[in-house]
Amino acid sequence: MQNLIMDAIESFGYLGVLLLITLENVFPPIPSEVVLTFAGFMTKHTSMTAPLVIVSATIGSVLGAIVLYLVGRLLSTERLERLVSGRVGRLLHFKPSDIVKAERWFKRRGNSAVFFCRFIPIVRSLISIPAGTTKMPFGRFVLLSAAGTAVWNIVLVYFGRAAGHAWSRVAGYFDTYAFVALIVLVLVFIAGVAIFYKRRFKTQKLNKQ
Q1: What pTM was estimated for this model as a whole?
Q2: How many domains does the chain have?
Q3: What residue numbers bound the domain in which 72 lies?
């Protein structure tokens, strides 16, 4: 994977960065850490410049985010409510009211979520889906996504540029951060699911008494 990324950037320059980051947002296994730190390194040894690399990466990130935002628009809250009203909802112990509560939460916290989740691996891609599902205004979504991802891109590109030939070591540090962050998120998710079902079953038990 790393060699393919390096070849793409060496061959296509800014366009290679844009396309790789677009794909990274749609297919998270592509490591933006490698793309951006190597691109940062290239700005010291080629005609590529850090500002244009950052602009290219930000455009690519926003394009990828828009794809998932549109996927979210297809998964409207109305469709999700109908889904959990049937067999799937009964199997998972979800209710239409749970979808409504989730939508209300995202409408209150969505701006912060879209911006800050751009710094978290995997989640920075997936956050675009609930933004689309809850019909966050498109212009606001693009602006918040661009702002959040620009910060991430600036940090990685300039770290890669400063590291020079040791750019891969910097990418490794960010890869470790990504792994730790992902583990923490999985644990938080598991805890959240456990709390949800504990409360749900407790409520159902009280209703039966």
Answers
A1: 0.78
A2: 1
A3: 2-208
> How far is residue 166 CA from its own chain's centroid?
27
CB contact set of 100 (below 8 Å; sequence gap of 6+): 77, 81
Residues in the chain, overall count = 209
Residue pLDDT, tens place only, 34-84:
889 999 999 988 899 999 999 999 999 999 999 989 988 888 777 776 766
Tokens of 185: 């998120």
Q: How confident is the model at residue 4 (pLDDT cuts 50, 70, 90)?
A: confident
Question: Kind and range of the H or E element at 17?
Answer: helix 14-26
Q: Which residue has the tokens 């933004």?
A: 131
CB of 84 closer than 8 Å to CB of 95: yes
- For the chain, the helix, strand and coil percentages under 3-state DSSP, each to the nearest 5: 85, 0, 15
Closest CA to 27 of 141, 151, 122: 122
Contact 145, 111 (CB under 8 A): no
Is residue 17 within 8 A of residue 60, CB to CB? The reply is yes
Q: Give how far Cα 150 sits from Cα of 78, 128, 209, Å.
A: 33, 16, 55
Distance in angstroms (rounded) separating the CA atoms of residues 38 and 14? 12
Cα distance between residue 71 and residue 139, in whole Å: 16
Q: Which of 148, 147, 136 is nearest to 70 (CA)?
A: 136
